[in-house]
Amino acid sequence: MSFESPLLLVAIAVVPLAALGYWWLQRRPSHYAVRFSNLAVLATVAGSRSSWRRHIPAALLLAALATLLVGFARPTVMRAVPSERAAVVLVVDVSGSMRAKDVQPSRLAAAKRAMERFVDRVPKELRVGLVSFSDEPQVLVPPTADRALLDQGIELLGPGFGTALGDAIARSVELAQSSTGEAGGDPRTPARDSDGRALASVLLLSDGAQTRGILSPGQAAERAIEAGVPIYTIALGTDAGTIEVGPPGQRQVVPVPPDRETLAAVADVTGGETYDAESADALREVYDDLGSRIGRTSAPREVTSAFVAAGALLLAGAAAAAVVAAPRLP
């Protein structure tokens, strides 16, 4: 927390001085005797007051004073806010292994539903692109804020054959770079937020090892490092996942476990994070978590009103406590 008017915090010194004055008044002996004809009634009234409860109004009043004085200094906190310049590229594996049904109703169907939810829940300012890949990567939707266009692109996703993972990473990094480059600047250099983080990122979902392509995942990750684009990876599926291949009558069951090690390594070296999703619910939670963080930048926000409101509540509490704690004669 920081303050727009930090010099006003000096006024908080009034609070301990007021507390000291209150303590001195409580300790000072009374100079006057009080006469009361009915000592039994007096003992009843005096005895009903707890030694600590009678200090509650003063404590609340001092807390209110401190809170209001802090508020007058105009406190600010850093909050994550949507960035209009941010972009994320969704990269989804549509190889044949995405037909596996170990993730219900199938890996690809679960991925489509999770991505649709992601697109609906992220800030409307965030531009989202869509890249699919099997034998080769294909840009289905360039980064855009048009949610209807993204939904159409996601709905068109269908299973293919091979897995060109490295080429898909490289193509998505190029797309991310060009989407946030400074106007008139080098398009290969993505824009950065106030904390120095790239405003472009890649969210890669895959379920298998590379079987096609020119670049290896490691080579493609090096390009992401040079561009400063973090890659968040999701390994979809279980080790028990299988698909059937071959012509009718000669079908064979082929295991298709996810390649978690490669995806984790790509995320680690590029500054992203890796996730393991073995069910549709787990995949949805991953996209929800990423959607709450990606495309946001830190910005100061003044919270004076919150301190003033808290101070007003404490003042009201002090008044109420004083009424309740005040002794009453029967």
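Above is the first protein from milestone M3; the second protein from the same milestone is given next.
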Amino acid sequence: MIDRADRPRRERVAASATAAVIVAIIVAPYLISCTLATGNPLIAIDYHTRYYRFAENQPIDKPMSAAEYIRRKFAERPVATLDTGLNGIFVQPFFTKWNGFGPWAPGAGAVARALGAAGLAAMPFFAAGRLLLVALLGSLVPYMFTWNVGGGGEWRFTMHAYPFFFVAVGVAVVGLVRAVQAVAADPVILRSRAATVAAIGVAIYFVLPWYVIRESIVRGESTSIETGERDRVFFRSGWSPLHVDNIPFRVSRTERAVVRLPLPQKRAYDIALRIDPITPTSPEQVDVLFNRTLVGRFRLSLNPERVGSYRIHVRDEIVTAGSNELILIPTSLTPSLSAGPRYAWLGPSERLGLRMWYVRVVP
């Protein structure tokens, strides 16, 4: 006689075994055919490492398995590879799927994206949702480490994820009423769980770029700290929201704008600033402080075809191993109304100093 408490566990084991047998029956003929034809059952995956190595200027004269390709990435750049993988499985496939709703109705893509994100966030809390997430995330594993190499980020590689995201939208719509009822019944538990999950996700997404940049500097590579969606860990105070006008940039809007740099060693560094004045005549120059020590004073010029580049040398005695502060002080601030149409997206009462593209730590 099977104990009632033990029955669900045994049923799950039996179902899992059945699923494994079915998968083996479906997949085995293909793997056997690949083995007989090429000697490698995973040739369909391993073959593409040649393409990705070529895109990264690596030797391609010898074959390399996908497992070895990823292993080398982790061995050489563990933090950057982790960041790439997390973006490739959680961020890129999702955010590239909603632009097509724009012609239907203004804002339709943003609404669908928000509902999809809410639905995906709710899925871990019920069994069917967890099953869908396992299927979705498992299907994205071959894409997660190569989306930023060559043409590895093409839309077609994650086209199969679209139905999962539509299901997530449905989950959000159907679950809104239930969520309201659940919060009313037990608000403390639900809110604490949601806050914990959200805090962890936000921290990982926005803090990891700091360690990716640090890892690149440790390797002695030319490393750019660019303005972008995940740049807030660097561009701390005194900056406008991100704006894109051919290039992404931020505008300083206080007398002092701060950039934080993750320098791993106490030594001398060369740093290049890609900045522009707001108008051809304002500001005329900018003072650059590094950890509150004056390291440069530049007369600015505006070239409509190229963002200005200014280079500073930082002596080792003023460098801290860890977080360092770069402060930009323009000699004047330009009223937004006088700055021209390029800055019309900013409020009329804003006072603008510099346009920042990126800071580069030069070997």
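Note on the second protein: DSSP finds nine helices and twelve strands in the chain.
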